[in-house]
Amino acid sequence: MATQIFLNLPVKDLNRSVAFFTKLGYTFNPQFTDEKATCMIISDTIFVMLLTVPFFQTFTKKEIADAHKAIECSIALSADSKEAVDEMVDKAVAAGATIPNPATDHGFMYQHSFEDLDGHHWELVWMNPNGVPEHQG
């Protein structure tokens, strides 16, 4: 079996977050959904557990960062094209996301990002398989 990843994110309003990510085209696994959490399906091996802040807090004694004020991670997902990157960012903005930085085009790589309703940083990246520069030793 391939390794799966379950990214856990605290959210202030679960229903609002589900509505936001639904507008981006994501679906949710009802087996892992209740009033405290849901499992957003990114792919066959990538899942995002959206957990209410009080439920998330049960997994740690550390303070939960306010993603509007601090960043702990950047969630980066690949896309099939530059257009797919921009399409997802446009959907996110239409659903209420903010843009922290303009898109960047390095020729071999194109990236753009958004911050979701809870301030989590999402990066969309397209890599040109024929344009990756050779590593200089």
TrEMBL record:
Source organism superkingdom: Bacteria
Domain VOC: 3-127
InterPro entries for the chain: Glyas_Bleomycin-R_OHBP_Dase (IPR029068), Glyoxy/Ble-like_N (IPR053863), VOC_core (IPR037523)
Pfam families given in the database record: Ble-like_N (PF22677)
Matching PROSITE patterns: VOC (PS51819)
Gene3D superfamilies: 2,3-Dihydroxybiphenyl 1,2-Dioxygenase, domain 1 (3.10.180.10)
Protein name stated in the entry: VOC family protein
